[in-house]
């Protein structure tokens, strides 16, 4: 099995079993070194100043934009806007695009598995615009027939915002079918790819995404950088959300002329070192190979699910097929609150997450309060899974 672990310095200084990559991924050497290198060698404020270093800093930042555009199959680099995280990217679309086009009585279609970051901006907007929200309800494998999608998306639908991969069930939603049906009814499609870009090849055109958002930190990149892809014609309809330095071409006492797209959406000093780190994260994932990462994650997920099957009090949410989990396995245990399970694992130096994972409507729909989530990534190994299973299989004894 591939040993990517040696690329991650975190594991040389800790004896922690890290199974919380869906919250944030550990960083490989090239990403950590890139941020350091930026501040040691290239630190200047991009877009400001005509000295050589400022020009170099601008070039590095724009190289990062091109790398992201190419990586997700965007038609042009200008379609990539850097934000602080996926949450900011999704809010930007809701506030500056959807709020312009949404009319009273229109419908926004979401899925029941959404993370609050792709839920709250839309519920709030619907309330403000007197529009309504409808939900697609995939089965636990993430599946929905076209018939079911057609029952929810109609000519009343103006916006469809869905996760590509659920951060709780790990299932992949049929975004291509959803987008095709949404477009037939004249709606735009926003894809939250925060849990998918690190597990599969994402191409905005193949998916049919009009907008797509993700965070660098979940794909081994730095915290503090998010990406919003938007089709250029749609970005042209948007006003900036933030106003200030370097997002205007000229300012007079009476008014302003905006900078071009995408710079008009990136007011103030940008996270240049973070974007440089993100570019290295893309290179790292590409050289590791998404197919090899997938193979490893799926095989560890299989090991976990097969091992957990011998504990009859442990119930895995979602598909019974490990390869449909994108490394994300949530479970509940009879009579043992999720936070207690997570605390016991933590006592054994095993980091997992418990709670409703910022997806409360999904938990209401499933009729459960909380779950434990194990999330596996390329640096995990069989020993991590075995040690976790060992604790889970004797956890009831430990409690009693
Ligand atoms: C599916 C999904 N969307 C959006 C987010 C929000 O990401 P961030 O906190 O980086 O903005 C998360 C974070 O867990 C997520 O899992």
List keywords for this structure.
single chain, 400 residues, alpha/beta, Aspartate Aminotransferase, domain 1, Aspartate Aminotransferase, domain 2, 2 domains, 7-stranded mixed sheet, 4-stranded antiparallel sheet, 14 helices, 15 strands, globular, binds pyridoxal-5'-phosphate
Question: How would you sum up this structure, described in words?
Answer:
With 400 residues, the chain is α/β, with parallel strands linked by helices. It has two domains: 5-19 and 289-399, Aspartate Aminotransferase, domain 1 (Alpha-Beta Complex); 31-285, Type I PLP-dependent aspartate aminotransferase-like (Major domain) (Aspartate Aminotransferase, domain 2). Helices cover 39% and strands 16% of the residues. It has 14 helices and 15 strands. The strands form four sheets. The protein has a seven-stranded mixed β-sheet, sandwiched between helices. Helix 1 (29-42) packs antiparallel against helix 9. The two termini are 38 Å apart. Pyridoxal-5'-phosphate binds at residues 85-87, 115, 117-118, 163, 167, 192, 194-195, 215. Pyridoxal-5'-phosphate (PLP) binds next to helix 3.
What is the gist of this entry?
39% of the residues lie in helices and 16% in strands. The chain has 400 residues and is of the alpha/beta class.
CATH architecture of the largest domain: 3-Layer(aba) Sandwich
SS element count, helices: 14
Which sequence of SSEs, written as H and E, runs from N to C? EHHEHEHEHEHEHEEHEEHHEEHEEHEHH
Largest sheet: 7 strands, mixed
User: What is the CATH C level class of the largest domain, in words?
Assistant: Alpha Beta
| Euclidean distance between termini CA atoms | 38 Å
Q: Can you count the beta strands?
A: 15
Structural class: alpha/beta
- The domain tally reads 2
CATH topology of the largest domain: Aspartate Aminotransferase, domain 2
Q: What would CATH call the homologous superfamily of the largest domain?
A: Type I PLP-dependent aspartate aminotransferase-like (Major domain)
Q: What is the mean predicted local confidence, pLDDT?
A: 96
**Cross-sheet strand order for the largest sheet:** 2-8-7-6-5-3-4
Which shape, going by the Cα principal axes? globular
Name the ligand types: pyridoxal-5'-phosphate
**Backbone CA Rg:** 22 Å
């Amino acid at each position: 099995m591939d040993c990517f672990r040696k690329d991650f310095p975190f594991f040389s200084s800790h004896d922690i079993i890290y199974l919380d990559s869906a919250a944030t991924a550990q960083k490989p050497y090239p990403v950590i070194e890139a941020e350091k290198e930026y501040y040691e060698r290239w630190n200047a404020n991009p877009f400001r100043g005509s000295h050589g270093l400022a020009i170099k800093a601008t070039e590095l930042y724009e190289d990062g934009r091109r790398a992201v555009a190419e990586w997700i199959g965007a038609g042009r680099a200008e379609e990539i806007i850097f934000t602080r995280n996926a949450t900011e990217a999704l809010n930007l679309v809701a506030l500056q695009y959807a709020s312009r086009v949404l009319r009273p009585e229109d419908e926004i279609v979401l899925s029941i598995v959404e993370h609050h970051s792709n839920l709250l901006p839309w519920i709030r907007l619907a309330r403000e615009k007197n529009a309504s929200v409808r939900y697609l309800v995939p089965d636990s494998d993430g599946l929905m027939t076209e018939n079911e999608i057609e029952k929810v998306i109609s000519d009343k639908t103006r916006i469809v915002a869905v996760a590509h991969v659920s951060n709780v069930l790990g299932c992949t939603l049929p975004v291509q079918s959803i987008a095709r049906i949404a477009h037939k009814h004249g709606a735009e499609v926003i894809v939250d790819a925060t849990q998918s870009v690190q597990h599969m090849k994402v191409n905005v055109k193949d998916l049919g995404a009009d907008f797509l958002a993700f965070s660098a930190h979940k794909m081994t990149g730095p915290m503090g950088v998010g990406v919003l892809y938007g089709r250029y014609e749609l970005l042209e309809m948007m006003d900036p959300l933030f106003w200030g330095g370097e997002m205007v071409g000229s300012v007079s006492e009476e008014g302003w002329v905006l900078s071009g797209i995408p710079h008009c959406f990136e007011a103030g000093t940008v996270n240049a070192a973070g974007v440089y780190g993100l570019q290295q994260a893309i290179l790292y994932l590409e050289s590791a190979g998404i197919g090899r990462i997938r193979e490893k994650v799926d095989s560890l997920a299989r090991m976990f699910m097969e091992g957990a099957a011998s504990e009859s009090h442990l119930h895995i949410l979602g598909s019974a097929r490990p390869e449909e989990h994108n490394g994300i396995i949530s479970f509940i245990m009879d009579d043992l609150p999720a936070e207690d399970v997570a605390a016991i694992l933590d006592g054994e130096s095993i980091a997992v997450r418990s709670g409703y994972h910022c997806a409360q409507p999904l938990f209401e729909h499933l009729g459960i309060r909380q779950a434990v989530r194990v999330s596996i990534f390329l640096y995990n190994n069989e020993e991590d899974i075995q040690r976790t299973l060992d604790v889970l299989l004797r956890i009831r004894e430990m409690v009693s």
